[in-house]
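Thanks for the sequence, V.! I ran Tripartite tricarboxylate transporter TctA right away. Repeating your input here for the record:
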Amino acid sequence: METLVALSSGFAVAMTPYNLMWSALGVTIGTAIGVLPGIGPALTLALLLPVTYGLEPVSAFIMFAGIYYGAMYGGSTTAILLNTPGESGSIVTAIDGHAMARQGRGAQALATAAIGSFIAGTIATLALTFVAPLMVKLALLFGPAEYFALMVLALTTVTAVLGASLSRGLASLFFGLALGLVGIDLQTGQARLTFGILELLDGIDTVIVAVGLFAIGETLYNAARYRFEKEEIYALKGSKWMGKEDWKRSWKPWLRGTALGFPIGALPAGGSEIPTFLSYLVEKRLSKHPEEFGKGAIEAVAGPEAANNASAAGTLAPLLSLGLPTSATAAIMLAAFQQYGLQPGPLLFDNNPDLVWGMIASLYIGNALLLLLNLPLVGLWVKLLVIPRPWLYAGILVFATLGAYTLNNNVVDLIILWIIGLIGFGMRVLDVPVAPCVVGLILGPLAEQQFRRALAISQGDPTVFFTHPLSLGLLITAALLVLVPVVLKARQNRREQDAQAQI
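Predicted structure:
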């Protein structure tokens, strides 16, 4: 009952004309960004961080949430019509969605993606409404030792999961931790890693790092990677609505995709890629027409798209209640919280209920707005694909540079921005994940404070981290996340060597 009262107050915040405008703007920008290949929600949020610096936190996060949901919706458009996923969660959708487009059924593929996204997003937001407060109650049991262990788990999960190589993930993490050390030590007052530059005494702004890695680095990588010839777009033919058979074959995959997407998105090792692939495999196993998969099965579009959008709500649950980012987009939203001097977790629900519940309520509103935007206006979104990519990437670079400069009107910020941007470009080329760097920059100083606080309370006894059950459990989980993949890989290599020796 308490949750419903809080949600109703959130709707009162989200339904004001001013916040409705920001929600509508967010879902519109998010859809447009999702449609454009190579530009995901993380890059967009990073790009808008400097621009929203003067905006009220409630309005800013309502817009950010709209962008996140909108990008999840829009990514299916290019996946279906161009075979180019606009967002990583739409990779699976491209397999059968593009096959349907080649058969002249692109409109039906887009319709099942949009309706499935709406249903999944609404159900998953409902789950978020009730799950997040329960996670907050769990977090209230945490002391300094438990918070330090939780941050170690957050750093470990993002490092181990986001990227193909653990060593590369750790390199990105340690780079972020080093950036977080720059500035004045809050306890001793000593300057650290400032190299005599006065502007670095306050530390390196999180927004500068996020914009540099995601906007500058990602844009340079996309500009260097993609050729700029005009791509073939499959036109929408015939009826733009789903037939009776399409509805019959879609509604169960929508529900199953939702059931997979939300819980996996909420896990530290979640994200949108895992549930979409699982949804595809489940639908193929349960389908009466498995031979159609890969050739234009509508279930293979309905299920993964539902899982994709449900995972977005799942990602927000640990972010809001525990401050635990489980994806690159969540890492940028964590940076946005820090920009406003806020730390996600139990205190956020107590001190800023208007922000939390207004943001959650806006997800319901944004879902309805996205359905209205995507079904009748899909032809308009397709026209965005004709924008020349050199113009698009040049605009992003200029916008990112101007936005970063307006933060402090400081040339040093611009120098740092482009140095980190070039490093981010190199990281993308070498397949080093950038999200661990941002998470390390944000959570590193907080973990250091909790570590020192726990030692101060225990009078310097380091066993405090292992004598508290919650802290010990979190640290063991973090260790397993690092060690288990290493052991499994070593075992696989040994098997391959044995197999070669037998040959």
